[in-house]
Amino acid sequence: MKVRYHYVQKDSVKYCDISSTVKEAYDYLKETGYRCIPVLKNGKTFAGFIYKAHILEHYVENEGKETDALEPLIKNQDAYIFEEDSFFKTFLTIRRLPFLAVLNEDKEFSGIITHSNIMDVLEDSFGMKTGGYLLTVGTKEHKGAIKDLVTAVKDLNIEGLLTLDNGDKYIRRIILNLSSDVSENKLTKVIKKLEDKDFRVTSVDRIEKQ
Question: What does pTM read for this prediction?
Answer without folding.
Answer: 0.74
